[in-house]
Amino acid sequence: MGKKGSYFANYQKKLGEEKEVVERKRPEPISAALKTSFEEGKVILLDKPLHWTSFDVVRKIRNAIKIKKVGHAGTLDPLASGLLIICTGKFTKKINEYMAAEKEYTGSITLGATTPTYDLESKPENEKETGIISEASIKEATQKFIGHIQQMPPIYSAIKKEGVALYELARRGKDIELEPRPVFIKAFEITSIQMPVVTFRVVCSTGTYIRSLAHDFGQALGCGAYLSALRRTRIGEFCVSNAESIDAFINELQQQKKVANPH
Predict the structure, then answer these.
(1) Where exactly are the structural domains of the chain?
(2) 49-77: per-residue pLDDT in tens?
(3) Catalytic status, residue 77
(4) In sequence order, what E strands does 112-180 have?
(5) Are 6 and 55 in contact (CB under 8 A)?
(6) Per-residue exposure over 217-229, b if at least 16 CB sit within 10 Å of its own CB, e if not
(7) What is the pLDDT of residues 97-111, one digit of tens each?
(8) Are 170 and 176 within 8 A, CB to CB?
(9) What is the pLDDT of residues 201-219, one digit of tens each?
(10) Given the residues 47, 56, 77, 119, the one annotated as active site
(11) Is 218 helix (H, G, I), strand (E, B) or coil?
(12) Fewest beta carbons less than 10 Å away: which of 68, 139, 187, 229?
């Protein structure tokens, strides 16, 4: 797990996609009226791309609208895409309300191996044969996780212990004692099976770690598993189908700035 705000930059370096230094155009100033509208409060639905941290998105929006009071209603890991609710100004008071809402996810789980982070932020290990696992047993195994369950969070998570994130303690090699947390899984459906990859849809309560669900699912099948793709499709009444890309939001904002500041 990268440090907060560093993941996307590190990803670009890894791919050799660092942009050449070019002369930047001075951005259009934001009008007082437009700035005030964001300070009074807006809810922005964004489709977070892969390899961005949720804080990357907040920082991008904060820099674009030139106000400090910007936050998100529920973290998405860098390797997850999908709905991210951004609240500005006075509407940041609504963040806890949105965070408490029911979530829906789709994604894929790869059977036959585990990873320390329960996803692809670390390398697969402990490989096992999956040929003897039937489609019926895969679908049957989901039933063990539906309803009110006690879930162990991943060691590599942002949960804090004595003020320090668990992933920082894990990196330092510290022994970490975790306690299971109550979560509610309303639906856990297998939507396709192409061994060793199964795709799924999950509807769950806040606080549910889909990475842990994937790991525990593999344990139940006796072959191990890790989360290989994840997309958040809904938070409460808000759907990713109504969200826009970060680029689309920035482009719309630039157009509003031009209208407010004609040359």
Answers:
(1) 7-100+240-260, 103-235
(2) 999 999 999 999 999 999 999 999 988 98
(3) yes
(4) 147-151, 160-161, 164-165
(5) no
(6) bbebbebbbbbbb
(7) 999 999 999 999 999
(8) yes
(9) 999 999 999 999 999 999 9
(10) 77
(11) helix
(12) 68
pLDDT over 90 for what percent of the chain? Answer: 68
Q: What separation in angstroms does the CA of 62 have from each of 5, 69, 88?
A: 14, 8, 9
The one-letter code for the residue type at 150 is Q
Q: What average pLDDT does the structure give for the chain?
A: 86
Identify whether the C-beta of residue 201 lies closer than 8 Å to the C-beta of residue 186: no
Expressed in angstroms, the distance from the first to the final Cα of the chain is 46
Q: Options 1.20.1250.20, 2.60.120.40, 3.30.2350.10, 3.10.129.10; which CATH number does 103-235 get?
A: 3.30.2350.10
In sequence order, which ranges of the chain are alpha helices (DSSP H)?
7-15, 32-40, 54-65, 95-99, 135-141, 166-171, 210-221, 246-260
- Beta-carbon contacts of residue 33 (< 8 Å; ≥ 6 apart): 260
User: Is the pLDDT score of 172 beyond 90?
Assistant: no
Question: What is the pTM for the complete model shown?
Answer: 0.84
C-alpha 122, offset from chain centre: 16
> Which CATH fold topology does 7-100+240-260 show?
Alpha-Beta Plaits (3.30.70)
Distance in angstroms (rounded) separating the CA atoms of residues 192 and 174: 39
Burial status of residue 19 (CB atoms within 10 A of its CB: 0-12, 13-18, 19 or more): exposed
